TrEMBL record:
One of its GO terms (molecular function) is GTPase activity. It is found in: Cell membrane. It comes from Glossina palpalis gambiensis. Coiled coil: none annotated. PANTHER family: GTP-BINDING PROTEIN DI-RAS2, MIP08469P. The keyword Zinc does not apply. Belongs to the small GTPase superfamily. RasD family. The keyword Cytoplasm does not apply. Pfam families: Ras. Gene3D superfamilies: P-loop containing nucleotide triphosphate hydrolases (3.40.50.300). This is Small monomeric GTPase.
Length: 85
């Protein structure tokens, strides 16, 4: 019996995906609340203090109906001077 390495298509398709990973880029004008909505969603925190973002990568790990889900969330700069766009 060979060792099972990686995907076994017949078995994995039958039990469904067990891992998923998605990348999300949050874009918008300066001070509209991009960072706030990310920190509220991931860390359940909110602050009225404003600190402009240059660029920040966040990661969230969730387990939904037995599927492990990883979200890579990129928080971008809204202000023109530091924006990559
Ligand atoms: N009252 C209220 N204030 C908010 C809300 N969302 C964000 N703010 C405030 O608005 C300001 C800007 O929020 P940020 O989340 O930093 O905005 P941003 O879009 O990330 O800004 P940049 O990083 O400069 O692009 C902060 O002082 C927040 O506290 C909200 O839903 N209600
Ligand atoms: Mg920000």
């Amino acid at each position: 019996m060979p060792n099972r390495v990686g995907r076994n298509n017949a078995v994995d398709d039958a039990i469904g995906p067990t891992n998923a990973r998605h990348k999300i880029v949050v874009m918008g004008s300066a001070k509209v609340g991009k960072t706030s909505i990310i920190t509220q969603f991931l860390y359940n925190t909110f602050t009225t203090k404003y600190k402009r973002t240059i660029e920040e990568m966040h990661q969230g790990n969730f387990s939904i109906a037995g599927v492990s889900l990883t979200l890579d969330i990129l928080d971008t700069a809204g202000s023109y001077e530091v924006s990559a766009f």
